[in-house]
Design brief:
- Helix content is 25%, strand content 28%.
- It has 310 residues and is α/β, with parallel strands linked by helices.
- The protein folds into two domains: 186 residues, 3-Layer(bba) Sandwich (FAD/NAD(P)-binding domain); 111 residues, FAD/NAD(P)-binding domain (3-Layer(bba) Sandwich).
- It is elongated, with a radius of gyration of 22 Å.
- It comes from Mangrovactinospora gilvigrisea.
Length: 310
Amino acid sequence: MSEHFRNRYDVLVIGGGAAGLSGALMLGRSRRSVLVVDGGEPRNAPAEGVHGLLALDGTPPAELLRRGRAEVAGYGGRIVGGRVAAVRRDGDGFAAELAGGRTVRARRVLVATGLTDVLPPVPGLRERWGREVLHCPYCHGWEVRDRAIGVLATGPMSVHQALLFSQLSDDVALFTHDRPAPEGEDARLLAGAGVKTVPGEVAGVEVRDDRLTGLRLADGTVVAREAVAVATRMEARVDFLAGLGLEPVEHPSGMGTHLLADPSGATSVPGVWAAGNAVDLSAQVGAAAAAAATAAARINADLVMADARG
């Protein structure tokens, strides 16, 4: 990296997605010196558009980030590409070691690195991810409405996911895959919503003319489907915080790991805030951005008080 860095920033924002840029925008408008370090791997990159975001519904993810970067830069914020390898305490602030050896110092840190979606090892799923293979009925459900939808059972939230998709289509089937068939109340709910249950392990995805056409079971049977919903395991991207004693923990839902923070975004380490999907696994773009704006306001207030106390 050849960019010129200041010796120290008021705030280092780690992650340049919707959450990180929203936090940086709030801080820039408060006349704070801000550096955003972005790894360039937005979670929603495969999607055609961001949905459910008021006044910006359908905006391509890359375009949303382009506009956000321009707005942050307009208030003096700096955005650089790169990865943060580790963060450590440095006097009354922090030092972040970037991949490649450069060190950046800041008085406060906002973590907005999001999460990684871990898909089950079914051949073909990853290649269709963000297209006909999706996870969120609110983010992409409208786009597959009235189609034949398969829900691949992967964990405790799969029945709930199937019920949500049943509102969007009359042809929803839950594929039990490597999990036991639903019983008791779960089975009654699925039947009441008109969701069929398909037993047997899913061995792959059928594609024709670059479109998903079905799911292939281990016995060779192909069940026609036009879209597949998968509850991924979601893992917070926060390994670089281990040196501060901050590590992700299992989410109560069983959906994956997240970083603990209070409603303001403050973590257990004074001076470090976190927002977006690294904290809230189910947050959509708007919610992630709003949480980061809240955290940024708290960070600014914390710095104001620190300066006033001398």
